[in-house]
UniProtKB/TrEMBL annotation:
UniProt xrefs under InterPro entries: Acyl_CoA_acyltransferase, GNAT_dom
GO molecular function: acyltransferase activity, transferring groups other than amino-acyl groups
Protein name as it appears in the record: N-acetyltransferase
Domain N-acetyltransferase: 1-101
Xref: Pfam families: Acetyltransf_1 (PF00583)
Source organism, top-level taxon: Bacteria
Transmembrane segments: none
Gene3D superfamilies according to UniProt: 3.40.630.30
Length: 101
């Protein structure tokens, strides 16, 4: 069993307003990126790419060799432009208690 190590958070503010953010954790040689978000008024400025770049750089320094993330359809173009490729389709499941996993 591999241990999940502490992660990192990247935030970009423009004029004191949170414009883009994301977080990453490293498990073994995998970096798991999560919550990569850019505010609607800040899109198409390269901020999402800066966040992903900062997170993957940090994760590489922690020994990660593979990046993993779940992306919305809105994020596909960003990740493709950064050299990422779809590894597998994903689906969201909801338990009988209404909690999505």
């Amino acid at each position: 069993m591999s241990r999940w190590r502490a992660g990192a958070v990247a935030r970009i503010e423009v004029d004191g307003v949170l414009a883009a953010r994301g977080q990453v954790g490293v498990s073994g040689s995998d970096a798991v990126l999560d919550r990569i978000e850019t505010g609607a008024e800040f899109r198409r400025r390269g901020l999402g790419g800066l966040v992903v770049g900062a997170l993957t750089s940090w994760a590489g320094g922690e020994g990660a060799r593979t990046g993993l993330l779940l992306a919305s359809a809105d994020g596909h173009a960003l990740y493709r432009s950064l050299g990422w490729a779809v590894a597998a389709p994903a689906s969201t499941w909801r338990g009988s208690d209404g909690v999505e996993v």
